[in-house]
Please model this.
Amino acid sequence: MSEAKLHLDQSMLDQADENLELEDAGRTAGDAAEAKPKRPKAGVNGSIIAGIGALVLFALWVLSVRFLKVPPYILPAPEAVLNALWSGIAINPTDPQGYYVPLWSTLSNAAIGFGIGTGLGLVLGSLMAESRTVEKLLMPYAFALQSLPKVAIAPLVVIWFGFGAGSKIAIAALLAFFPVLINSFTGLRSIEPERLDLMRSLSATRFETYRIAKLPNAAPFIFAGLDMAVVYALLGAIVAEFLGAQQGMGVVITQAQAVSDVAGVFAALIILGVLGITLHSSVRRLERRVVHWAHRGKP
Model:
């Protein structure tokens, strides 16, 4: 009788152990499911939103012209702007009467100025981040230069560098310089102290610490500055062309304004707007390739 009772108690204990094992397995599976990172929900494509916004803007444009009777010297009809745009595009690319030659002149000057301005901004920002003495020496003058209205500086730059490409490149470089300077300085100074301690424990040189630890940490900041600088450089080249130039999109706009060709002005502005969006998208795409670790898990 006692043996049967012992056998029954042992069976009950075995069954309880099995139930506990099943519960533990269920908890482990549940914890693993909760710990598994959830994939971010796919949002609405940005291109779709931009397209919808463009359609809404175009619809408001058409309604303003057709039903509100806005005068054409204030807001030209969409078909007039499209005709002006087509007349400048459907032409021999080497013809100076079209948009290709002026656009190339503006874009090339802006690109050279962008390269000079961002290069100087990165070098000086790095020097200021590495040396407190250089920071105290250069930072006040950098902010003083940035606070000056560029419209007031531009005529002086044209006088100094002439009406050729030099003045356009100089103003483009001036506008592209400050965003990269500040962003690179901020990014290099924002590195965690633990990373610097690790580099010191590895007996890394100052340049190795800059190249391996500081520069990758500052890369998202630098690309944010490049994103602003590329548009500012284009703006600087156009502003310089307004003041005096032989060719460029600024010259195209000035000539259209002189003959009250509002549709031509709108056509040139559309081209510049598309160019600005293209440059911004190019910088963002390059950032995703270079600073890929900063975009992991993002849609």
